[in-house]
Amino acid sequence: MLILQTTLLFFLTALAEIIGCYLPYLWLRENGSIWLLIPAGLSLMLFVWLLSLHPTESGRVYAAYGGVYVTTAIMWLWWIDGVQPTRWDIIGVAVALSGMLIILLGSQESL
């Protein structure tokens, strides 16, 4: 159950980071309103707070988070940007998530 909760927390964290970066992108590249920076800043603050809730050491959290971030970014590519992932995107997600699981499950033993 802890792995499922942690994975969900990782996805929420990644979504907060992506939204926090996407809104300034809209402002800078797509001529969006400068007011987009307010929810962007709030989203990035949420991202930092969510990172602090993860139940292990910060370095391990950052390393494992990378796998979920890659997965969330590819889902964003598909659902928001409207670009269907390639098989290489899917293979990359599988490799990234495998690395995340190795880090999280292996954290129970020391080197």
Question: What does this protein look like?
Answer:
The chain has one domain (2-106). The protein has helices at 2-29, 37-52, 58-79, 87-106. The chain starts with a helix and ends in a 5-residue tail after the last helix. The model has no long low-confidence stretch (mean pLDDT 91). The chain is mainly alpha-helical and 111 residues long. It is flat and about 50 Å long. The chain is built from 4 helices and no strands.
The outline comes out as flat
What is the helix tally? 4
Series of secondary-structure elements, N-terminal to C-terminal? HHHH
Number of strands: 0
Sheet with the most strands, sense and barrel status? none
Please indicate the percent range of residues in DSSP E strands (runs of 2 or more).
Answer: under 5%
State the helicity in percent bands: over 70%
State mean pLDDT (0 to 100 scale).
91
End-to-end Cα distance, whole Å, is: 26 Å
Computed over alpha carbons, the radius of gyration is 15 Å
Helix/strand-derived category reads mainly alpha
- The structural domain count equals 1
Stretches with pLDDT under 50, minimum 5 residues: none
Give structural attributes:
flat; 0% strand; 77% helix; 111 residues; 4 helices; mainly alpha
